[in-house]
Amino acid sequence: MNDRGLDCVVVGYNEGDFDDYRVMCERAGPGTPEYQIMRSEHLVVDGKAMPWLDAFSRLRNGGTGRADRYHVGEVFNLAALYLTSYLRRQGLRAEPISLFSGEQDRLAALLSEQPAVVAVTTTFYVNILPVVPIVEYVRKLSPSSHIVVGGPLVDNLCQSGVTSTVQDLFYAMGADSYIQESQGEHSLADLCRAVRAGGDLSNVDNLIHCPAGEWVRARRRPESNDLDQCSIDWSGFTPQLIGSTAQLRTARSCAFKCSFCDYPTRAGALATASVDTVRNELRALADLGVKNVVFVDDTFNVPPKRFKQLCQMMIEEDLGLRWYSYFRCSNARDEESFDLAAASGCAGVFLGIESGDTEVLANMHKLAQDSQYRTGIARLKERDITTFASIIVGFPGETEKSVQNTIDFLNETAPDLWRAQAWWANPRSPVYQQQDLLGIEGEGYTWSHFSMSSAEAAAFTDEMFERVTESVWLPLYDFDFWSLPYLAGKGVGVSELKSLLRTSQELMGVRNRGGEPARLAALERQLAEGVAGLHVEPARFRY
Ligand code: B12
Ligand code: SF4
Hints:
Elements: E1 8-13, H1 18-28, H2 33-39, E2 42-45, E3 48-51, H3 52-64, E4 68-69, H4 78-89, E5 94-99, H5 104-111, E6 117-120, H6 131-141, E7 146-149, H7 152-157, H8 164-173, E8 177-179, H9 185-196, E9 207-209, E10 216-217, H10 239-242, E11 245-248, E12 251-252, H11 263-267, E13 271-272, H12 275-287, E14 292-295, H13 304-317, E15 322-326, H14 335-343, E16 346-354, H15 358-363, H16 370-382, E17 386-393, H17 400-413, E18 417-422, H18 435-438, E19 441-443, E20 446-448, H19 454-467, E21 472-473, H20 483-489, H21 494-512, H22 517-532, E22 541-542
Parallel strand pairs: 1-5, 1-6, 6-7, 7-8, 11-14, 14-15, 15-16, 16-17, 17-18, 18-21
Antiparallel strand pairs: 2-3, 4-22, 8-9, 9-10, 12-13, 19-20
Helix pairs in contact: 1-2, 2-19, 3-22, 12-13, 13-14, 21-22
Bound molecules: cobalamin (B12) and iron/sulfur cluster.
Iron/sulfur cluster (SF4) binds near residues 254, 263 and 299.
């Protein structure tokens, strides 16, 4: 099959246009969660609103005269790498693209080979907008390629079947077919082979295609791909492509059932890779020159026994890697877990704390108590592991008192970084089964229930932004906790980053209150000087 050219190009992330997003949030109106979130995640440079890392890049380029574009998408998109590696193992020729906007020249070169299939991943998309420009670009440069879209967006859209709304959305995205499957790698390989053979697409499981004016779904056959057999073959990628920070997945799905989250229902039972598979992948990453590893598993330290084995393996291997992951404090019950984490190179953890209020935690079915969180955060801090606490505001049961409890919790435990966001009411999440009991009306960022409304949650989040003083606010848009390992790979340490974030938090606060221009100007100067004073490796992407 190889002599027939490229079988598939897999396209990673398209971050979309920040201005479009800003306008959408502004249209939602002051007082809405959308507006509140947007205000606390951007900076303004030379009169233009932009995400945090764009501001960082612009301020830095002002001093260096370079055109570096620092972007978290420089850490190679994991779904694109994974699918590429899977297809190659099947004997197909495949190439990955990480960031659509950053790699258009490379994408154009790949498209000049007229690949049989172009696969569009949708890991981060909550609507169809980022897909459209990719499809248009591919159509223009490689009209003969079969474009397929798959991943979480398609899976989410089709939860109630291929309804008439879904039909319209499929036409609007403009692809040739869609794969509805929470995994999908097997279906993608079959599709590549079918397209190559010029054959009948209706035999490709999980495919939705449009043979006669209507989107029809082929046979549904859930995939259960073995994480050991399908682990990424990193030897197929170059050090230039991967860089110094890489992501790794060692498990699929999650064993918990938090009532605000539908992920376990979509992803099926928890599946894990063996310790030896992870060992081999880490060795390969170290060989490529990787220094920072991000485990994207939803609950990396669960099951606890496996977590300890993984840490022990990393200690044995001593590959000089620093790692980052999600971490459930409530499941790390002994000192040994924390000792092993630290000794194996744990540099930072994402803590899904969600709330500092016992009753709200119980409503969320978090199976966690605030005392466990307190002990956990203290133990992590003692070992110099950076802690980031993520908070949800306005879950059913939330009141002014519970918000106060969360503020107290954050000020008392003082995680290094934190962020709060209004509850995103997901109708497919378990809490909706109690919709009537809890008086939940609406969905997304427009809702009310027996104890709060979305507008109140947005206002409380603003209040928390002002009143949490012992932890530093971490912006979300194209930034988030996952930027820590990226920036560490560029030479920016967490204490330097925290100092910049402290200034940016104050800046956003003064700006959002419509505050004093002189204070604003002083803070802007302070931020620019802080950025200019850093030693930062050049970015892979350019403006
Ligand atoms: C790292 C990360 C980020 C980083 C990414 C950095 C980088 N360099 O890649 C950044 C900071 C950019 C980020 C941002 C966002 N993220 Co994020 N992020 C993640 C995280 C931790 C890992 C994603 C990942 O790589 N997964 C592993 C890959 C391999 O899995 P996968 O994409 O599902 O792919 C599999 C299948 O779905 C399939 N597949 C995928 N695409 C396709 C396409 C085809 C054709 C086929 C056949 C198959 C297929 O193949 C894979 C193998 O089976 C996840 C949580 C998690 N643990 O997954 C959240 C997550 C993906 N993020 C999420 C969200 C909501 C966002 C944001 C919108 C905002 C937010 N609330 O965080 C933003 C989006 C952009 C923005 N404007 O900021 C949600 C997605 C929800 C959804 N899509 O339904 C997740 C699941 C977290 C959560 N539970 O809320 N994120
Ligand atoms: S929020 Fe995290 S721990 Fe809870 S069910 Fe979802 S993925 Fe699992």
